[in-house]
Design brief:
alpha+beta, 4 domains, five-stranded antiparallel beta sheet, 12 strands, elongated
Length: about 400
């Protein structure tokens, strides 16, 4: 998706809005919300919900009370209440869905201390806001240089200006606690604004910066994912994925959030499966589980003395052997059960084009030029032969002169 300012410029080059997903038309922003109640009218006697959801730079969203009863719709730029001064944001949701979102995020919509919306932003407010936004990259670069000079073990990942330009919030990541008191003094002196430092996690950093994942799509955290659940390596083990940190880690350096998407399905499927630590007692020896296939419902077992030779058993057969072992009965061998396994049917591909061979195009083509040359030579021979015959015929001799 893209807004009108993201269209192509001269010579087919992309223009780009340079707003990092905070376009004024709300067409290519992050965490876009669809209001599916927008075409429904309010019942008689009911007042519209007086709270709205406002989005600021990147993924930061807050709720504000519309005390002035302004006629607001999605995409309107408004001036909101801040700790000191005012901030500029964009309305992303109005109406009853705001109440649903507040309940989901455990926000009290009856709280009298909820911040307010002052007015719709004027052109002067928008000009000041855009001017401050244009300074963010330069200030971020300068702040990183100051942090390097002070030898602080931190990374300043993003800068967000308040709408009136009186305050800037610096988002940073760090492994340990950082004493940035001197950093704040130096930055306040260099930039002439109030400074606020806010530490975020590596997942929140990736959410704010955005990017393309290994699946080829935009990061889930920057498009629709709002809650970050803990991801452990056991999620990869349950799904029988190789514990390769280069494949399991996302752009944030942590385990990918998508490892939890199908985990519940795998856990439900594994309820009927024997444990991977199951041991089978046979007269031939003790057998250990080497591998499981959740989709086919099979397990591979091998003897302790012969770990290289695996035998395929279904999960029902394994349960049967385990029940016999509980009754102190040993089975003869795994081979007896392995023979009972149903062999996989080989898929035979039929000829798609009638009775023609699928490899008919692989045969080398015969050169037609040779046949043509042979035909031409034969014609020439016959023609020359006929001409010689005509010359040798005595009937065609010229008569002698008298």
């Amino acid at each position: 998706m893209g807004c009108s300012s993201c269209s192509t410029a001269k010579d087919g080059q992309p223009r780009g809005c340079k707003n990092n997903g905070t376009c004024g038309s709300d067409g290519c922003n992050k965490l876009t919300v669809f209001d599916w109640l927008s075409n429904m009218s309010i019942p008689n006697g009911e007042k519209p919900f007086d709270c709205v959801e406002v989005r600021f730079k990147n993924s930061r969203k807050e709720f504000f009370r519309n005390t002035e009863n302004l006629s607001l719709s999605i995409g309107d730029v408004v001036a909101t209440q801040a700790t000191s001064g005012h901030d500029i944001g964009m309305v992303t949701l109005t109406g009853e869905l705001v109440k649903v979102q507040m309940k989901r995020k455990k926000e009290d919509f009856n709280n009298p201390e909820l911040p307010k919306i002052y007015r719709k932003a004027s052109q002067k407010d928008i000009d000041i806001w855009q001017k401050c936004r244009d300074r963010e990259e330069e200030i971020k670069k300068r702040a990183r240089e100051i942090a390097i000079i002070l030898k602080l073990q931190m990374k300043i990942s993003d800068v967000e200006f308040q709408g009136d330009g009186s305050k800037a919030t610096f988002y940073y990541t760090a492994e340990e606690r950082v004493d940035f008191r001197q950093l704040i003094k130096d930055m306040a002196k260099a930039f002439g604004i109030r400074i606020e430092m806010r530490q975020i996690g590596y997942r929140q950093e990736a959410q704010r910066l955005g990017g393309i994942g290994s699946c080829g799509r935009e990061l889930c955290c920057s498009t629709w994912l709002t809650d970050f659940r803990s991801v452990s390596t056991s999620a990869a083990r349950y799904q029988q994925l190789s514990l390769n940190p280069q494949k399991l880690a996302g752009q944030c350096g942590k385990l990918k959030c998508c490892l939890n998407y199908e985990l519940d399905v795998y856990l439900d499927a594994l309820k009927d499966f024997p444990s991977s630590e199951t041991k089978l007692h046979t007269e031939k020896g003790l057998a250990f589980c080497q591998k499981t296939d959740i989709f086919k419902g099979t397990l591979w077992f091998s003897y302790k003395e012969d770990p290289a030779n695996w035998h395929v058993l279904s999960k029902d057969q394994v349960h049967e052997i385990v029940e016999k072992n509980k009754n102190k009965v040993k089975v003869a061998s795994l081979e007896e059960y392995a023979v009972e396994n149903i062999e996989e049917e080989k898929v035979v591909f039929e000829k798609a084009v009638g009775q023609d061979s699928l490899t008919r195009f692989d045969r080398p083509k015969k050169s037609r030029n040779k046949n043509r040359n042979r035909g031409n030579t034969n014609k020439e021979k016959t023609a020359t032969g006929q001409s010689h015959k005509k010359r040798r015929n005595p009937k065609h001799k010229r008569p002698n002169n008298a």
